[in-house]
């Protein structure tokens, strides 16, 4: 008895810590499979002993929210759902009742209140009793109607989610790999609970209604199904739902399972709720679960395989993540051979070793994970050196989680952002090299410095075999690299990523140095400081950069890769000398505003970002716009000209 009670306490503490990390800190201490296994073990012990601890996650609905958003108590507690992985249990639950079956979406549950046809309030689920008010953020959900035809008070619940495609896109944009989100649910939670809704808007959060709480003076014929149909008629995107009974439940579960691979949104199972509203309400609730609904979680398809190796994947912050590579197996209709282990703590808990027999599955039938290690040889150890640069590694332990880092500040894996600037449009303009692709090439050892990009053709087979690449994309990449070999000196200087030196400054400096490539690395602080518009800060950063021999060597190597034609000053090169422009809005006669800037600067003019008393012209095709720049220009008497008027000035 004592040992079992002690085990219950251990399980409660472990599960609570894992859930707190997942829900509040966007960290994963264990896989979904492991969490469910331990949860079921705890529930079985509680049933056997007839004891439930106050701290047990089987009775606690959620955790207190930890943000600066306003808090509000829910009108009705939002309980968790009892769950099963057995269709037979769903048939038992249904009995002779009809029900509605729908996706159990894996996002953030939100309660919305509408009055007079307008969104009045949005509150997160929080701990089930108290949630966070996120009304301002809900107003920028991609598909949420802000005004509806129904004018009474409407209260409904739904799930805010971010699709897999947006999840991957957003994660690629996050420079700090440690700050990247582990899954769409954590990303959605972080996006919805922002203090500024500008971030929420950029994240493409969508809202799927799944339950109507109250709608005054509307007769739904005592049917949950009709409630959902009515919500759809009001303009809400409603979670996909079907009618079901004990005789059709098995077929319906099979249908939903077959749809998972096609879904862009994350789902961790299905939900059943009695269609008969009055009957469901008459059943009441337990301390944690409503009795009118039930959750179904997918019975994970598990395969045994052999661990081939642990691949160590460095990132731009120095974090080195373990990735398990195993003998390929078929899971949920696809072949998988790799699974992220996330961190050293999980690797150690699994006691992984090369040649071990492991069980793998797909979390939510999508993401490959290791369920269990049957051999547990524990023979895998963290490497002492970084697989990319060979620098020393160190193990960091924080919040009970061990992670591995590269200590070399010059590790190529940490320079992804500088590589991204090098290939950007205003620099070398090499298409087909996103940050994610650059990261892959660096980790594979294909590029170590900027000059290596011009020799990627050596690695044709390796690149074609990378995910997302093929014959055509490889050919396009080589073509773009070939085009980049013909560039200008300012673009080359800007591409180096010298602190405080943008393309405009690079043009001014190169012009002052006679557009002579040989003079670029030897310019002194004094001569740079004398260039109008440069100044001491930029001059110091420039000289400090070329003071390092490795940077001078890199510049020399790049000059061998590119051709920089001599630039002749046009006859009207000083036409806009002393004239300051600001450009805003869209352009029609140029590919982008950058081209307008280049034309102005080529004629001696200057382009700034804000309208001031020194501005001579504001270029904006929308002359009547109420934008802040237009307002400022009118206040200061600065002429607002269209693109056509500007082109007339150029003639």
What's the name of the CATH homologous superfamily of the largest domain? DNA ligase/mRNA capping enzyme
> How many strands?
22
Name the poorly predicted regions.
Answer: 61-67
Strand content: 15-25%
Proportion in helices: 25-40%
Mean pLDDT: 84
Rg on CA atoms, Å: 30 Å
CATH class category label of the largest domain:
Alpha Beta
The secondary structure category is alpha+beta
Number of domains: 6
Terminal CA distance: 93 Å
CATH topology of the largest domain: D-amino Acid Aminotransferase, Chain A, domain 1
| Major sheet attributes | 7 strands, antiparallel
In DSSP terms (H or I, runs of 4 or more residues), the helix count works out at 23
CATH architecture term of the largest domain: 2-Layer Sandwich
- Choose one word for the global shape: globular
Task: Please specify the SSE layout and strand pairing.
Blueprint: H1 2-24, H2 32-49, E1 71-73, E2 83-84, H3 87-94, E3 99-105, E4 108-115, E5 118-124, E6 130-132, H4 135-138, E7 154-161, H5 164-173, H6 184-192, H7 197-202, E8 206-215, H8 224-233, E9 241-244, H9 249-259, E10 267-274, H10 277-282, E11 293-296, E12 303-314, E13 319-331, E14 334-340, H11 344-350, E15 357-363, E16 367-373, E17 393-398, E18 401-406, H12 416-423, H13 435-443, H14 460-464, H15 471-484, H16 489-495, H17 503-512, H18 525-529, H19 535-546, H20 549-561, E19 580-583, H21 593-602, E20 606-608, E21 617-619, H22 628-636, E22 640-641, H23 643-650
Parallel strand pairs: 2-11, 19-20, 19-21, 21-22
Antiparallel strand pairs: 1-6, 3-9, 3-10, 4-5, 4-7, 7-8, 10-11, 12-13, 12-15, 13-14, 13-18, 15-16, 17-18
Helix pairs in contact: 1-2, 12-13, 16-17
């Amino acid at each position: 008895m004592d040992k079992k009670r002690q085990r219950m306490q251990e399980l409660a503490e472990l599960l609570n810590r894992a859930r707190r990390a997942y829900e509040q800190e966007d960290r994963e201490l264990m896989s979904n499979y492991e969490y469910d296994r331990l949860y079921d073990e705890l529930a079985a012990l509680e049933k056997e002993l007839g004891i439930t601890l106050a701290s047990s996650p089987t009775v606690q609905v959620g955790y207190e929210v930890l943000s600066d958003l306003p808090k509000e108590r829910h009108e009705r507690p939002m309980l968790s759902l009892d769950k099963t992985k057995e269709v037979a249990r769903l048939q038992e639950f249904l009995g002779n009742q009809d029900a509605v079956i729908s996706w159990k979406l894996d996002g953030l549950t939100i309660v919305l209140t509408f009055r007079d046809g307008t969104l009045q309030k949005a509150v997160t689920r929080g701990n089930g009793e108290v949630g966070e008010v996120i009304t301002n953020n809900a107003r920028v959900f991609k598909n949420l109607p802000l005004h509806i035809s129904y004018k009474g008070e409407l209260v409904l619940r739904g799930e805010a989610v971010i699709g897999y495609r947006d999840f991957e896109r957003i994660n690629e944009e996050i420079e700090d790999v440690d700050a990247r989100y582990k899954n769409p649910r954590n990303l959605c939670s972080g996006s919805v609970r922002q203090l500024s809704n500008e971030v929420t808007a950029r994240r493409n959060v969508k809202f799927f209604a799944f339950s109507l709480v109250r709608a005054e003076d509307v007769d739904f014929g005592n049917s949950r199904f009709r409630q959902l149909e009515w919500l759809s008629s009001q303009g809400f995107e409603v979670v996909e739902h079907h009618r079901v009974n004990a005789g059709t439940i098995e077929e319906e579960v099979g249908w939903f399972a077959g749809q998972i691979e096609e879904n862009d949104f994350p789902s961790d199972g299905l939900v059943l709720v009695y269609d008969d509203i009055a009957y469901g309400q008459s059943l009441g609730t337990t301390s944690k679960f409503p009795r009118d609904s039930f959750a179904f979680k997918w019975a994970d398809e598990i395969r045994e395989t052999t661990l081939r190796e642990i691949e160590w994947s460095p990132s731009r912050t120095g974090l080195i993540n373990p990735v398990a590579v195993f003998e390929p197996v078929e899971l949920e209709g696809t072949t998988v051979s790799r699974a992220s282990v996330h961190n050293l703590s999980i690797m150690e808990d699994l006691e992984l070793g090369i040649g071990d027999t492991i069980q793998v599955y797909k979390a939510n039938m999508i993401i490959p994970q290791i369920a269990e290690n049957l051999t547990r040889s524990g023979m895998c150890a963290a490497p002492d050196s970084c697989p990319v640069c060979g620098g020393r590694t160190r193990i960091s332990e924080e919040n009970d989680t061990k992670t591995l880092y590269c200590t070399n500040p010059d590790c190529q894996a940490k320079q992804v952002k500088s590589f991204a600037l090098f290939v950007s449009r205003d620099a070398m303009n090499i298409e087909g090299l996103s940050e994610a692709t650059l990261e892959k090439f660096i980790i594979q050892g294909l590029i170590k410095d900027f000059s290596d990009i011009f020799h990627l053709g050596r690695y044709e087979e390796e690149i074609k075999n990378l995910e997302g690449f093929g014959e055509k994309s490889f050919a396009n990449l080589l073509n773009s690299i070939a085009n980049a070999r013909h560039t200008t000196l300012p673009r080359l200087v800007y591409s180096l990523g010298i602190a405080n030196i943008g393309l405009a400054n690079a043009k001014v400096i190169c012009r002052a140095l006679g557009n002579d490539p040989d003079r670029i690395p030897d310019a002194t602080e004094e001569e740079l400081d004398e260039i109008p518009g440069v100044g001491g800060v930029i001059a110091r950063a420039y000289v400090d950069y070329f003071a390092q021999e490795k940077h001078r060597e890199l510049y020399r190597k790049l000059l061998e890769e590119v051709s920089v034609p001599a630039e002749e000053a046009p006859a009207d090169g000083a036409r806009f000398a002393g004239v300051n422009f600001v450009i805003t809005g869209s352009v029609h006669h140029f590919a982008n505003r950058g081209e307008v800037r280049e034309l102005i600067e080529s004629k001696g003019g200057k382009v700034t970002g804000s309208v001031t008393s020194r501005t001579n012209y504001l270029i904006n095709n929308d002359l009547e716009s109420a934008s802040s720049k237009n307002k400022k220009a009118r206040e200061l008497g600065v002429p607002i000209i269209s693109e056509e008027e500007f082109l007339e000035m150029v003639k």
